[in-house]
């Protein structure tokens, strides 16, 4: 994985490219897949985009973005993967093949799952606590290397202790001295291809409210001074659009789509985030569980190009499906919410390119 | 090119038999259902029968997009009037432009009358000549068409299906459990069902006459043969129904826990004197071996929750209908597809091992993958049946299936032996 800064914008925001070696899906010719940053990784659970069978990935409009493969929901597949690779002897191998995902989309393994709140106190010198079905697995560096060997991701996050809830003692979390020490040590590792900025929230669906940007900002800025500019900075978690904008302004290049999942699980439909007319950032959503939508036969948003809206699935129908606890509700909401979220990122990149991004911070 | 042997037509439905098995009562036919939609969504659908209809209880085939359902080869599904009537309610469906518009299903759809669910789901149901009085399990403070305590009459059941806008509607019948011991009650039920069919017909005709759009005229009302496990009752029911020249004929009151040999005997009796040029629909049957034998007795259409329900429990249908449990630990290292002969998206892209992991983690993607596969399984199985009839080898196909399920003749269950003997099949 490589990274190039394409354009430095105001404050610490920038446009860049994340580059991966890829094999063209049909011709099998080696090529380079390029993903513009700020970039949104496609969050997966057990190796699948939540609620979406791989056959439908083409309909997601997610720019074929790299997959985020969190460890907690995939660690228990490790042995199966080892034998899968052996059984297919190179014809098929790794998590992307095993999970039936598209072959030429890169994958990045993370240690934590954006949607699983860290169960505090389980990271010790033996390794970190990875909570899978059936309980805690202790994962150290050599176990992670084993996973990486079997999963064959294009990038992976090193083992790290990110158990730093806001009420943690000074030894963790918002301790500036510890942060800069970590940043300096990380910066010195020239063999890494990027940096995951971790520990400002403890993951889970409440991440957005946990991350107090006012407190985080000065620390983040100090770290950014220390870390090399030509390496991508990744901050994972279910973060709201407004927070993402502030983090981009502070120099973060890569995020993930788990926020869209959080909204879907609640039965909410995201509405268009950036109002291009006023260059305003909206965080509006429709609670489609609500009775008010029972006979609202319009689509979620009239000009939306997502699969759900284009095919005429109405607010009333999704309302009915949610009330009947039908799985299709979340399938339809995922299409819409992911599309809206990725469209938001595309708009961000365009605004950065046009030097209008700063207006969003007003 | 097979010539048409016999056919029937109405404004909304046409049916042509194109091949007879010769050794059994099985036949290969084409069923065309006209679109009801005024909008751009609907289309006329022609399907081949024998055919299986998956059940989309709540105006959705669990977890699957309409395009995915269609992708399995399915163009006719079933929705339950009782559930749809409860939520979102038939008036909401009507205001949406009908169920096709609401659920974005452009192909054909059949609704049941709501009668069966009332008897099986409701806390209390009392039948009178007027209709069925019951208490709904749905909560009290919702504004549903089907409310807490309600009398469902044949007229209402028909009107509800008009509002839902299904291509095929079922009469409200007097459904009682086949295991009901009272023969008298069974006899009452069959005659009452016929009277209720007449009432449904009147309601339907009136709606057709009053309807300027012509939409109701394209909806097709099927009567249901009843009679429990009594052959004479069944014959009476069939006689009365055939005399009324319906557009299609359903067989009900079976597949409710009765003994298999009684079941197949009643299917045989129910179809024996039906006109060849009308489609026959056996309600609530969907196991491959059951459908196979019922096709041999002349059934054209089936519906059942079984394939989609068993998918949600983690089972894939393979071969000629055996179940494979994906949850079993041995699946973790099984890198073959769910069914090695299947061409569905699940079998092409995924392994049993991966689906196993999804099911163990209760990931809904696992349910979707299994549902899609199981529906495709049903479609492929029915295709095999049709191909066998077309090629004149249906009896051999039955033999293959029996060998697959039971091994050799000594192991055949009684109902199979009985059926073979009645059909005079040499298998």
TrEMBL record, chain A:
InterPro entries: Queuine_tRNA-ribosyltrfase (IPR050852), TGT-like_sf (IPR036511), tRNA_ribo_trans-like (IPR002616). GO terms for biological process: tRNA modification. Residues 173-361 form the tRNA-guanine(15) transglycosylase-like domain. Residues 163-172 have a biased composition (Polar residues). Residues 162-182 are annotated as: Disordered. Gene3D superfamilies: Queuine tRNA-ribosyltransferase-like. NCBIfam families: tgt_general. PANTHER family: QUEUINE TRNA-RIBOSYLTRANSFERASE ACCESSORY SUBUNIT 2. This is tRNA-guanine(15) transglycosylase-like domain-containing protein. It comes from Medioppia subpectinata. The lineage of its organism: Eukaryota, Metazoa, Ecdysozoa, Arthropoda, Chelicerata.
Automatic annotation (TrEMBL), chain B:
Substrate binds at residues 112-116, 173, 226, 253. GO terms for biological process: tRNA modification. Pfam families: TGT. It is found in: Cytoplasm. Residues 25-404 form the tRNA-guanine(15) transglycosylase-like domain. It catalyses: guanosine(34) in tRNA + queuine = queuosine(34) in tRNA + guanine. Zn(2+) binds at residues 342, 344, 347, 373. One of its GO terms (cellular component) is cytosol. It comes from the Eukaryota. One of its GO terms (molecular function) is metal ion binding. Its EC number is 2.4.2.64. Residues 284-290, 308-312 are annotated as: RNA binding. It is an enzyme of class 2 (transferase). Its cofactor is Zn(2+). The active site is at 112 (proton acceptor), 303 (nucleophile). InterPro entries: TGT (IPR004803), TGT-like_sf (IPR036511), tRNA_ribo_trans-like (IPR002616). Keywords: Cytoplasm, Glycosyltransferase, Metal-binding, Transferase, tRNA processing, Zinc. Gene3D superfamilies: Queuine tRNA-ribosyltransferase-like. Heterodimer of a catalytic subunit and an accessory subunit. Belongs to the queuine tRNA-ribosyltransferase family. Catalytic subunit of the queuine tRNA-ribosyltransferase (TGT) that catalyzes the base-exchange of a guanine (G) residue with queuine (Q) at position 34 (anticodon wobble position) in tRNAs with GU(N) anticodons (tRNA-Asp, -Asn, -His and -Tyr), resulting in the hypermodified nucleoside queuosine (7-(((4,5-cis-dihydroxy-2-cyclopenten-1-yl)amino)methyl)-7-deazaguanosine). Catalysis occurs through a double-displacement mechanism. The nucleophile active site attacks the C1' of nucleotide 34 to detach the guanine base from the RNA, forming a covalent enzyme-RNA intermediate. PANTHER family: QUEUINE TRNA-RIBOSYLTRANSFERASE CATALYTIC SUBUNIT 1. This is Queuine tRNA-ribosyltransferase catalytic subunit 1. It comes from Medioppia subpectinata.
């Amino acid at each position: 994985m490589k990274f190039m800064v394409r354009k430095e914008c105001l404050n610490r925001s920038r446009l860049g490219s994340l580059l991966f070696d890829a094999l063209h899906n049909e011709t099998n010719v080696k090529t380079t897949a390029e993903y513009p940053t700020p970039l949104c990784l496609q969050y997966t659970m057990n190796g699948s985009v939540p609620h979406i069978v791989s056959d439908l990935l083409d309909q997601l409009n997610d720019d074929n973005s790299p997959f985020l493969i969190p460890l907690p929901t995939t660690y228990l597949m490790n042995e199966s993967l080892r034998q899968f690779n052996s059984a297919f002897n190179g014809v098929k191998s790794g998590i992307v093949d095993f999970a039936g995902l598209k072959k030429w989309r890169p994958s990045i393994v993370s240690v934590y799952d954006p949607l699983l709140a860290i169960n505090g106190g389980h990271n010790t010198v033996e390794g970190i606590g990875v909570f899978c079905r059936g309980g805690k697995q202790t994962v150290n560096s050599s176990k992670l290397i084993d996973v990486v060997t079997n999963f064959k991701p294009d990038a992976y996050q090193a083992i790290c202790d990110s158990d730093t809830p806001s009420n943690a003692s000074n030894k963790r979390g918002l301790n500036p001295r510890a942060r800069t020490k970590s940043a300096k040590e990380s910066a010195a590792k020239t063999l890494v291809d990027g940096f995951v900025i971790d520990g400002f929230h403890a993951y889970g669906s409440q991440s957005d409210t946990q991350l107090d940007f006012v407190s985080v900002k000065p620390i983040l800025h100090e770290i950014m001074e220390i870390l090399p500019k030509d390496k991508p900075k990744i901050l994972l978690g279910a973060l709201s659009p407004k927070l993402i904008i502030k983090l981009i302004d502070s120099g973060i290049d890569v995020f993930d789509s788990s926020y869209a999942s959080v909204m879907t699980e609640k039965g909410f439909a995201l509405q268009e985030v950036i109002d291009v007319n006023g260059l305003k950032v909206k965080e509006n959503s429709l609670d489609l569980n609500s009775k008010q939508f029972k006979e609202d036969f319009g689509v979620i948003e009239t000009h939306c190009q997502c699969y759900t809206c284009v095919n005429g699935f109405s607010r009333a129908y999704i309302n009915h499906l949610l009330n009947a606890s039908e799985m299709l509700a979340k399938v339809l909401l995922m299409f819409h919410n992911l599309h809206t979220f990725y469209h938001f990122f595309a708009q961000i990149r365009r605004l950065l390119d046009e030097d209008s991004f700063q207006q969003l911070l007003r | 090119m097979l010539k048409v042997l016999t056919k029937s037509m109405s404004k909304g439905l046409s049916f042509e038999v194109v091949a007879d098995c010769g050794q059994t009562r099985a036949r290969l036919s084409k069923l065309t259902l006209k679109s009801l939609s005024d909008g751009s969504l609907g289309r006329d659908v022609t399907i081949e029968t024998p055919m299986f209809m998956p059940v989309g209880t709540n105006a959705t085939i669990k977890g699957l997009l309409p395009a995915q359902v269609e992708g399995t080869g399915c163009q006719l599904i079933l929705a339950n009037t009782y559930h749809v009537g409860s939520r979102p309610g038939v008036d909401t469906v009507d205001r949406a432009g009908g169920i096709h518009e609401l659920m974005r299903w452009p192909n054909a759809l059949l609704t049941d009358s709501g009668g069966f669910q009332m008897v099986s789901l409701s806390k209390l149901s009392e039948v009178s000549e007027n209709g069925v009085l019951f208490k709904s399990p749905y909560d009290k403070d919702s504004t549903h068409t089907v409310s807490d305590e309600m009398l469902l009459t044949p007229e209402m059941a028909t009107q509800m299906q008009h509002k839902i806008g299904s291509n095929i509607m079922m009469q409200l019948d007097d459904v009682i459990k086949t295991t009901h011991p009272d023969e008298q009650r069974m006899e009452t039920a069959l005659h009452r069902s016929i009277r209720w069919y007449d009432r449904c017909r009147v309601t339907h005709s009136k709606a057709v006459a009053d309807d300027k759009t012509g939409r109701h005229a394209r909806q097709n009302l099927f009567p249901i043969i009843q009679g429990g496990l009594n052959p004479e009752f069944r014959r009476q029911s069939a006689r009365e129904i055939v005399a009324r020249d319906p557009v299609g004929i359903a067989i009900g009151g079976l597949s409710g826990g009765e003994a298999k040999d009684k079941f197949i005997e009643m299917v045989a009796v129910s179809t024996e004197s039906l006109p060849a040029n009308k489609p026959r629909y056996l309600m609530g049957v969907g196991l491959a071996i059951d459908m196979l034998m019922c096709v041999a007795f002349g059934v054209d259409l089936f519906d059942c929750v079984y394939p989609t329900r068993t998918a949600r429990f983690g089972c894939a249908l393979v071969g000629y209908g055996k179940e494979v449990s994906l949850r079993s630990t041995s699946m973790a290292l099984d890198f073959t597809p769910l069914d090695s002969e299947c061409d569905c998206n699940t079998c092409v892209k995924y392994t049993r091992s991966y689906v196993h992991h999804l099911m163990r983690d209760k990931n809904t993607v696992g349910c979707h993958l299994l549902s899609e596969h199981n529906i495709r399984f049903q479609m492929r199985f029915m295709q095999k049946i049709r191909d066998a009839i077309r090629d004149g080898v249906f009896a051999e196909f039955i033999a293959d299936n029996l060998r697959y399920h039971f091994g050799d003749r000594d192991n055949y269950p009684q109902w199979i032996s009985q059926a073979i003997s009645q059909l005079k099949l040499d298998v």
